[in-house]
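1st attempt posting a full record on here, be nice pls
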Amino acid sequence: MELQKLHDPANGQMRVVGLMSGSGTNLCKIIEHEYWLKQSRGTSPYTVIAIFSDNTQSKATEIGKKYDLPVVVRDIQAFYAARGKPRKDREVRIEFDSETVKVLSPFEATVAAYAGYMSFATEPLITAFLGINVHPADLSLTTEDGKRKYTGDRAVKKAIVAGEQSLRSTTHMIENVVDYGRILMISSPIEVMLPPEYHPTDEESLQRLVDEHQNRLKERGDWRIFPKTLEWIADGRYAVDSKSGQLFFDGKPIPQGIRLD
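the predicted structure (as tokens):
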């Protein structure tokens, strides 16, 4: 067994670029946690050094101004339109990601925080940075054939319809299959609260219920474990066995990440 830290503090402060497509609330919490660490510890083990967005309508520029950070925006819709290709075309996505890596290279980031970044990542991005994402589901839950139960952008809805009694968020590494990266941390649970009049066939009331739970999960799940995961990576507490790929925390194996209860 040969353990290698995901980030070695001996190499200096961990440099993070935030990737976003919309409101950027997760990224704001990561930046604010960095500020809190500076105040409470005297320094932060990580620093967000730039923001990247693939959407001209996102709040990236606004967030950059608020926190005095450089912002790079590249319109992915325009990129596809100029080539006359649909968004599902993987080769165009690879080209887009390759150029994104080039424009971000001057910032010398080693970690990319996927803070509401709505486009799937291809090999250029995956290999250029240690990608960390937060997903609104417990990714340790699997079906009988070993597939993760609640992947994709409707994870909260799937979990509620399936009858789950609680919901959790998961931070994981960005890897080649969406929402199948190695698990880093799973949040404390929030209870699923169904109103007396709830009926799963009423799509309108179901969506209101999903939105309500999604917001609660973001506040008590995403916003807590995403910054904390980055902090502990930057502190050198996470490591990987270079031979097996197994993740470790403080020298102990974590096949399903760290679970908060």
